[in-house]
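Problem: given the chain below (374 residues), write out its structure.
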Amino acid sequence: MRVLVVAPNMYIYGGAELVVVELLNYMADNGIEHALLCTGLLPEIEKALIATEIINYPFAASNDWRDLLQNMWLLSKGVARHAKRFDIINFHNCPAEIAALAASKPSVWLCNEPPEVFLGGSHARDSAPKRLAKSIFYALDKLIVRRFVRNVVVADDFNAMRFKSLYGMTPQIIPYGINYDFFSTAPELIPKNEGRFVVFQSGMFNPYKNQLKTLQTVASLRDKIPEIQLILAGFQGGPYFEEVKKYINEHRLDDIVSLTGHINRADLRQLYYAADMLIHPVKSQGGWLSPFEALSAETPVVVSTEMTAASLIQSNAIGTVTADYAKAVMDVYLNRQRHKEAARRGRQFVKDNLTWEQFGAKMLTAFDNAMRRA
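Solution.
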């Protein structure tokens, strides 16, 4: 089996990029011939790859629709040029699936998030031309996926139902893995709380990660939990980050809120261990890995009802699933031992059920099935 993995520009090392890295390294470890076709690659990501051929078509990002168009064009050109060397094409992250139009081989789309989520949907504040452009892109995407991408993988039941409602296709469910060995091993140096009750959230700043809700929660609890401290880690920039900074200033939260910016995996692990809890008020986009990484460190988690893996957390009683974050944070504060016991169950759940080896093996089976059906 020879696999070409296709992903748009990888200039941030987030959860979606980690999935790609772990799959590539699994194939390298198991002697599967493979390559990564991308439109830009962070040096940190390239360094994390064990033995992967890299086909890179980088371009200067402009942070507007030109990026989407350039990704579509360059990835399609790369697939057309290199597909003949491979048996299966594996697409990751919008708009990589558009390049299926140029593929002459069976393909599997690992759909982390459909375009309607990736592009933020059609908002009233969008201009008429932008709404029209989105509608045209969504229609093109559905046409190409239904015609050329017959094999789709998602991570959970929520994404499976959403995908079926959008495309009329039933995808296969393969949960992501977690770097359990790494996150379950306490770092040598853990930042001291110094009498603080530390609430932690990780993720790049955007409306789907919902950092404003976390700030509102902490602001409402400041008098009830005088020692509360919030740490927000993640890539900064854009209008939403400016909203976050404005809220912090207007509500005078500078003394209890820390903004770390983007951090590496080692620093992320330190903060999981330093925190008293992880708060995760994400909407139905991304954010799949963080709660399970935190649980690997036995850190209690509070997640939104919209988080796509919320059913896993709730059904296994390994964390709190809620829309009332203030109440949940207060409960963790008052009943730390009970929540710590739930986190220990979560740690064991991750160890038993969410490994990258399981993920990689199931993805190879999905590739093999796609080739047999071609």
